[in-house]
């Protein structure tokens, strides 16, 4: 196992290939260099400066990252890999304090091996970790990663066929409650767009990671609701939702008393209501969707949260569109909290804003 003692720090990061060039040029402006692809949307790079949580957020497209403190060339299939790796990592991190251990594979086919390795590391460090985390809590965090306090100091291990990387971070600094940044969401209703509902689930988790709980939002305005994946998800949380779309909503949802559907152009929605939160998933040009959504924030309570998907029609136009959209919301008194390319976002990024 090699200690990385060079002056610049190496990082492992997950960035979707479609947005890699945008992310790279943002990261280069902070001094990032030596970018190397590891496959499956994972990369390593180095940076001299301390990479703060704010800079990682400003790079927009980082789904998950951690500083590499140790790396170890290896062959996963080698006899005794798990034992050797677990012992090696436990000894290298002997003097570090951590309350959780996560292990993820770069390639999903190695998931089982990653789970077994995590199990063995946890056994090896059991005594030390029992001071920080009870067995019951560990089981809870394993089953429900969103239960982890965002600042939980975590020993993170990533494995590939050729290498093992390890470092210390926390869910908030790495950018996700889920190791590696892959968030699979099981959705109960397959008839309506499930990816949209996944965006809602992952979006509310991203807010939680940043200390904002929208579970208290009982009245939602949803712009661009058809066919109804998100509407279904909001109503299944026992919240009321005013769902607006030019297109038709799933017929079963229309029977739900928590769902108030208006089949109109969102611009024409003029009910005098007061909402706790807004979710906007309108398609079309980014500035037009932002104009429509920001206009509706007049119906939002003070400090209400807006989750807005910015559709990326062309990577070349992204920086311009992003600046335009930010300024449209700012003019309407909305503060951008952060932006994230969620695992369930494809050609879009999600903006999280607050009405001030
Ligand atoms: C990505 S889809 C929404 C998916 C939906 N959120 C779900 O969970 O199933 C985008 C929707 O925006 C709607 N849309 C676009 N512009 C609109 C407008 N000006 N007024 C109303 N609906 C609009 C489209 O009809 C389309 O159904």
TrEMBL record:
One of its GO terms (molecular function) is methyltransferase activity. InterPro entries: RNA_MeTrfase_FtsJ_dom, SAM-dependent_MTases_sf. Residues 194-283 form the Ribosomal RNA methyltransferase FtsJ domain. SUPFAM superfamilies: S-adenosyl-L-methionine-dependent methyltransferases. This is Ribosomal RNA methyltransferase FtsJ domain-containing protein. GO terms for biological process: methylation. It comes from Silvanigrella paludirubra.
């Amino acid at each position: 196992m090699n200690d990385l003692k060079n002056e610049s720090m190496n990082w492992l990061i997950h960035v979707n290939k479609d947005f890699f060039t945008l992310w790279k040029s943002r990261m280069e402006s902070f001094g990032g260099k030596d970018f190397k692809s590891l496959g499956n949307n994972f990369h390593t790079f180095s940076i001299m400066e301390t990479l703060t949580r704010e800079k990682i957020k400003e790079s927009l497209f980082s789904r998950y990252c951690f500083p590499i403190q140790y790396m170890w060339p290896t062959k996963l299939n080698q006899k005794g890999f798990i034992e050797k790796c677990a012992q090696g990592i436990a000894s290298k991190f002997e003097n570090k304090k951590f309350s959780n251990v996560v292990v993820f594979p770069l390639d999903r086919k190695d998931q089982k091996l990653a789970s077994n390795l995590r199990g063995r590391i946890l056994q090896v460090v059991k005594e030390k970790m029992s001071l920080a985390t009870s067995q019951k809590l560990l089981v809870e965090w394993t089953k429900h990663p969103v239960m982890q306090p965002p600042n939980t100091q975590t020993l993170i291990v990533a494995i590939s066929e050729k290498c093992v990387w390890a470092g210390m971070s926390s869910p908030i600094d790495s950018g996700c409650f889920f190791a590696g940044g892959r968030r699979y969401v099981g959705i109960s209703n397959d008839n309506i767009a499930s990816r949209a509902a996944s965006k809602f689930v992952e979006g509310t988790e991203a807010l939680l990671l940043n200390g904002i709980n929208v579970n208290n939002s009982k009245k939602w305005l949803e712009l661009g609701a058809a066919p109804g994946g998100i509407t279904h998800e909001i109503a299944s949380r026992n919240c009321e939702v005013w769902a607006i779309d030019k297109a038709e909503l799933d017929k079963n949802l229309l029977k739900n008393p928590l769902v108030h559907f208006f089949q109109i152009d969102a611009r024409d929605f003029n009910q005098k209501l007061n909402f706790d939160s807004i979710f906007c998933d309108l398609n079309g040009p980014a500035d037009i969707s932002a104009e429509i959504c920001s206009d509706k924030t007049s119906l939002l309570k003070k400090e209400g949260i807006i989750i807005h998907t910015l559709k990326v029609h062309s990577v070349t136009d992204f920086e311009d569109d992003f600046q335009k959209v930010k300024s449209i919301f700012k003019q309407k008194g909305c503060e951008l909290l952060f932006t994230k390319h969620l695992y369930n976002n494809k050609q879009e990024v999600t903006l999280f804003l607050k009405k001030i």
